[in-house]
Amino acid sequence: AMLRLRLLTWDVKDTLLRLRQPVGESYAAEARAHGVRVQPEALGQSFREAYGAQSRRFPNYGRGQGLSSQQWWVDVVKQTFRLSGVHEDGVLTLMAENLYRDFCSARNWEVLPGAGETLSRCCQRGFRMGVVSNFDNRLENVLSQCNLRHHFEFVLTSEDVGFAKPDRRIFEEALRLGGVPPEQAAHVGDDYARDYRAARAVGMHGFLLRAAGQGKEPGVPPEHILPALSHLLALIEK
């Protein structure tokens, strides 16, 4: 039977948008502009280390601990370069501020294949639409720059709400804003725990975006798996 859905909520990173190139490449290009040579692979490894440590110490961009997300990111960038052997304070600050700004724009983000078309078709079908993302407050701007913002009634980031997926409260806030009960809403995302399982836990429907070759998740029926975003409407209207 056709699902009686009124609201669709969307994850962003690796669901609607992806980075144009690996983080290490962007950081290495910024370093080169300042005459500093660092290998992209080394920077990628250092970034994962710095980002992981910062996320454990100050979860959700330090939202509960008095940090601004800009300060949170500037610290991650500086630590990434320090772990790769760059220690000059002036150049660290400059690179960190430039990279913070660049990751706010379409320079570093691209729309995933089929995303724009799928969102347009969902809007034409009359679904209400919102974003639910573990992102900082740059997301509105990133979505605008990538020409996706107009599809959504609301954009909920974990920084704004104060809770990150899989916390049920970010989904409850989305349902409140959308004005629908959970059984009339579905969430679309690429992460089993943070998107699919978390949405199901509040009683929403869930669709898990799974690129070809990604492993099968336990307990996700095939009719909830999207090999590509373009399959979504066929599954909803089945």
TrEMBL record:
Any single Pfam family the record assigns to this protein: Hydrolase
Annotated keywords: Hydrolase
InterPro entries in UniProt: HAD-like_hydrolase_domain (IPR051828), HAD-like_sf (IPR036412), HAD-SF_hydro_IA (IPR006439), HAD-SF_hydro_IA_REG-2-like (IPR011949), HAD-SF_hydro_IA_REG-2-like_cap (IPR044924), HAD_sf (IPR023214)
GO CC list: nucleus
Gene Ontology MF annotations: hydrolase activity
Similarity remark: Belongs to the HAD-like hydrolase superfamily.
Name recorded for this polypeptide: Haloacid dehalogenase-like hydrolase domain-containing protein 3
Organism of derivation: Eudyptula minor
Annotated gene: HDHD3
